[in-house]
Design brief:
Blueprint lengths: L11 H15 L10 H8 L3 H14 L2 E4 L3 E4 L4 H22 L5 H20 L2 H16 L5 H13 L1 H8 L2 H20 L2 H23 L1
Antiparallel strand pairs: 1-2
Helix pairs in contact: 1-2, 1-3, 1-8, 2-3, 4-7, 4-10, 5-6, 5-9, 6-8, 8-10, 9-10
């Protein structure tokens, strides 16, 4: 009997994409800053070719902007852009959460709880990169249910386009703590199987992040 298949080996392009995302989340590349391809390649231990491919991938996601004869820059969003993205997320995530909640089993709930614990540990340690990763796992585990691949694809695109700004939010110690409490309330709604309460808690969590980013950007 064959065992489970080994996980796929990341390609050089995917490694370059991951490296660029880490640089943006860590603040090494900030909104409006030009991306030096050779520097990224050296940091990632890659040639420039996969980095160029990765730049195009992130441009399609909206995380980078290409300017002719000048190169790629980390996309700089205005507050109105963020508000539009968060409003779209509200619509899509409510639909996805209401669809997913009735199908949620004990294993999925445990995965969400583990992600919440990882978020709390990262918040206490001030590890923004780890908290961002755990936060993403937490939120997507809530909505990832069969039968809505297009909704999930759009949600991922919207999340990816604002990851740099989410890092700004988590760089504030008081917001790291607030996020942990918000996750606890979301978990309570999940355990109760209450879709209206779940949507309300997700909306409150998202609205607070947008309010904080408004203060940061204006």
């Amino acid at each position: 009997m064959n065992g489970p298949s080994p996980p796929p080996v990341p390609t050089a392009q995917q490694h370059a994409v991951d490296s660029l995302r880490r640089l943006m989340v860590s603040g090494a590349l900030r909104p409006g800053q030009r991306v030096n391809q050779e520097d990224v390649a050296a940091r990632a231990g890659l040639s420039v070719a996969p980095v160029r491919e990765a730049l195009r991938v992130l441009e399609q996601e909206g995380q980078l902007t290409y300017r002719p004869r000048r190169g790629y820059f980390v996309t700089e969003l205005q507050y109105d852009d963020l508000r539009e993205i968060y409003e779209l997320r509200k619509v899509l995530e409510e639909r996805a959460a209401r669809h997913a909640l009735p199908t949620m089993d004990a294993g999925t709930l445990e995965r969400i709880e583990e992600a919440a614990r990882a978020c709390a540990a990262a918040a206490a340690a001030g590890d923004v990169a780890a908290e961002l990763a755990a936060n993403r796992t937490f939120h997507f585990a809530i909505v990832e249910a069969p039968g809505q691949p297009h909704v999930l694809r759009l949600i991922r695109l919207l999340w990816d386009s604002t990851e740099v700004y989410r890092a700004m939010y988590y760089n504030l110690p008081e917001e790291r703590t607030a996020s942990v409490h918000a996750h606890d309330r979301i978990l309570d709604a999940l355990r109760a199987g209450d879709p209206d309460r779940l949507v309300r808690e997700l909306d409150d969590h998202r609205d607070r992040a947008l309010e904080v980013l408004h203060r940061v950007l204006t």
